[in-house]
Amino acid sequence: MKVSLIMPTINVTEELDLFLKSLENQTYKNFELIIIDQNQGSEAFEIIKKYENFFEIKYMKSEQKGLSLNRNKGLIMMEGDIVGFPDDDCEYKEETLEKVVSFFKGNADKRIYSCRTLERDKDYGTGIMFENDMELTVNNIEHTVKSITFFVNYTLEDIILFDENLGTGAYFGSGEETDYVLTLLHKGFKGNYFAQDIIYHPAKKGNYGDLEKAYKYALGYGALVKKEVKCRKNFLYIFKLWKRLFRNVGGMLITKNRRYHRIVFKGRIRGYSRYKCQG
User: C-alpha distances in angstroms, 219 versus 17, 69, 106, 142, 275?
Assistant: First the structure.
């Protein structure tokens, strides 16, 4: 089985080299890396060239910015059976791809694999992910899937594209990976989460110092919930939004980050109200 790794890249150099080195060291060799370069300069290209003799690379320059949009360009180019979506600053363990392929080969009824992300040499990562293995469901997806941790087996299926209204670079600036996997689950895909399999990624702990980013992320979460509740008729999902809004209210009342919680509260409400179902 061939693996296609789709990676838009922008404003990253040293971390990109680290990721490419981790691909060179993979024990499973049947994969292609599809790079969509959103940088104006040639810095990323110069790094990528060093690895062209070690594994298959497809390189594309993109003048358009947007994570989901450029991932979709990669999906159209892919030739693999399995697809994953690494960030340009993550790092695979040597056996990462081998474990993914082994899972799909041994579980013909499963189409999604996900694992945990941690910062290297730390016991924490971005967000809270469950510490036990489990089957992926609509209810646990927010704690079992990050964009870099999930792989999809499309051997027998039509490829699904990302919602280009969601994610970095779009108005609704987050939620694209959760929405993507929710879409798959609603289409009948099944999968598993493996808490002891790790993909490394620098931990990001809140956006207290970047309120603009916090607001965009909040817009994305509100839009994600709107899509799940109104477009896919999963009405109980609204409780996830209410829980986060209550947390923001508490933050406005009793923490020093009142402005942050006020902006995030506003963004989540606005994202929910402004997202429009497609089709």
Answer: 32, 18, 39, 16, 9
- Answer whether residue 42 shows pLDDT above 90: no
Q: Residue 44: pLDDT band by 50, 70, 90 thresholds?
A: confident
Each residue's pLDDT tens digit, 12-37:
777 899 999 999 999 999 999 999 99
Rounded-to-integer distance, Cα 137 and Cα 246, Å: 24
Three-class SS state of 63: coil
H or E segment to which residue 211 belongs: helix 211-226
Helix or strand or coil: residue 85? coil
Torsion sign (Cα): 107, 113, 116, 117: positive
How far, in Å, CA of 263 to CA of 232, rounded?
A: 27
The overall pTM is greater than 0.85: yes
Q: Check whether 205 has a pLDDT greater than 80.
A: no
Q: How many CA atoms lie within 13 A of 57 on its CB side?
A: 20
Supply the DSSP string of 246-258, one letter for each residue.
Answer: HHHHHHHHHSS-H
**86: closest CA among 39, 151, 132?**
151
CA 79, CA 170: separation in Å to the nearest integer?
27
Q: What are phi and psi of 134, to 5 degrees?
A: -165, 165
Question: Buried (b) or exposed (e) across 175-190, using 16+ Cβ within 10 A?
Answer: bbbbbbbbbbbeeebe
Q: Tokens standing for 73?
A: 């360009």
